[in-house]
Amino acid sequence: MLQIKNLHASVGGKAILNGLDLTLPKGEVHAIMGPNGSGKSTLAFLLAGREGYEVTAGGVTYEGRDLLAMAPEERAREGLFLAFQYPIEIPGVPTASFLKTAVNAVRKARGLPQYDAVEFLKILKAKRDFLGIGDDMLRRALNVGFSGGEKKRAEVLQMLLLEPRLAVLDETDSGLDIDALRIVAEGINALRSPDRAILLITHYQRLLDYVVPDRVHVLTGGRIERSGGKELAQELERQGYVGTAA
Amino acid sequence: MTATAAIRHKPFPYVERFAALAASLPGAGHPNVVALRQAAAEQARRAGLPTQRVEPWKYTSLNRLLETDFEPASSAARPAANDAAGWTVPGSYRLVFVNGRLAGGRSAAGLPDGVTLTTLADALARGDDDWATGAASSGHPFVALNTAFLTDGLVLRVARGVKVAQPIHLLFLGSGEAGASAIHTRLVIRLEPGAGIDVIERHAASGAGVYWSNPVCDIRLSEGARLGHAKFIDEGAEAMHIAVTGVEVAADAAYDSFVLTTGGALARNEIRVTLDGERAGCRLDGLYLGRDRQHIDNTTETIHAQPMTTSTETYKGVLEGKARAVFQGRIVVRPDAQKSDGRQLNKTLLLSDRAEIDTKPELEIHADDVKCSHGAAIGEIDADALFYLRARGIGAEEGTRMLVEAFAAELIDGIADKSVASLARGRLAAWLAGSAPGGTA
Hints:
The complex is a heterodimer. Chain A is α/β, with parallel strands linked by helices. Chain A has eight helices and twelve strands.
């Protein structure tokens, strides 16, 4: 589904990714762990199409297509979803109408009929109840005045509504208390399926107690230094990132 | 005329048409009206039009007006059937003026006792001249032009304590199809103590071509009166709209203004408010949406003349293409106006590198115990916000539209009058959809 080959990228002339290789097959959940500054968020933003990154070598293919040549909205319509580490607050845009616009934009691109207001509310209700998101939150402007946990749950709600084929979650576990973490993990697990892939980017292994990954990769200095099974996460938790370099 | 004066003012040839026209203007049989008009024409002739060397006109050029050979608008024009299509104010009492003259009926059926509507054509025909004595009667060149050439308009009076639920809806339509035409209307509003009413004023095109609308609005609010005044400037693509509104607000009275400008090649809306009694207040809000080569100028002046007066002002704009906007907001606090509170904010979103805003807030404070603030911000679409929307599958164009709508809607959401808010939302949506300014849409 996703193939990253020898990816080199820099921001403002500073090299951040230095030959990153990663293959994420359909149906699998992979975790990328790494210390601060290792390039985790750069990788997430590059995959989603944010401007400001210069790819100096290598490339990314998604479902056989050159991902980096696609506009951000095209990537989203083709099934890529990034849960932001810091969701953007957008005053004046009500959350509920944003969700409907996004879902219908993606459905339109996939050749599916548009939801009308009533249909959409029905779908929305089922998913938001599951995540413990209230009506008041949906009436507020997008992410404005949301607590850290509410923002993360809103990201997961968006993910469930957009039904991505490849979900990239950038530190979705950070800043969550244990109850919120469980809810978010349940949301992610609900998405797991044989024709989807999930990339969990995280600093800590605690999310991986709830969403068990097929593979764990360690990112340091802008490249994958080590890969292993789920037990690698526990090892990192005990020993830290120091000394994990192969 | 000295060399300096020649630079600061230019003669306006249109004024010379007055001599030939005077005998056919309404009220020509009444010496008092004739004298009033003649004095105004003389004043306009002497003043000419200000050039950009005159401070209040620094950012707005009147060359286009000077260079056009205007005819006073013909009375023959009638509104087309679709002129008001898609633009209705439920439950309102409506009057339509076409090229400066009332079109259609004028019955006051349905209006409560205590509300008097007189057309200015009728007032002039019977020799009234009290319409010329209010807040807008200063030495302003465009007020003088209006007094000299005035054809019609409305005098609205609301008697003491009468609160009118039904808004008065005035539609001013202009057309330059028969050649460049000049339109001179006046709206006079007098609210007696404790009276309250809402007026919705819309200026739009009923036909193509160049026309110049020269409306004057003169408002006097007595003690405890309240006026909601919404103005929509949706003039045609080639039209010029240069308006002067003067407002006197007595003690405990409130003037609540909202101006939405989407149309006109050149639109200048000037509002001058004097808070002339204790606890008098005003709220001046505006939204300007410009594209192509439009020039939109909002110039306001609020004078706090008495203690404990309050004013709040928020003007927001969105400009694309080569559009240019001007915001000049002056707050004056006179020595006696202790414990007054004046707040002003101007925010503009520029969607293109070639769009331009000149913003000039001015505070002139002569009292020591006052609260005053002003701020101006100019920005572009937030790149992070747009990326977030695009990352959810929303296209760049639609995402931009959502962010612009959010920016503008913040102001519209603050409008208390539901019908005004809904009209404003409609105009905003039409603008966002890219429809041409003005016209009959």
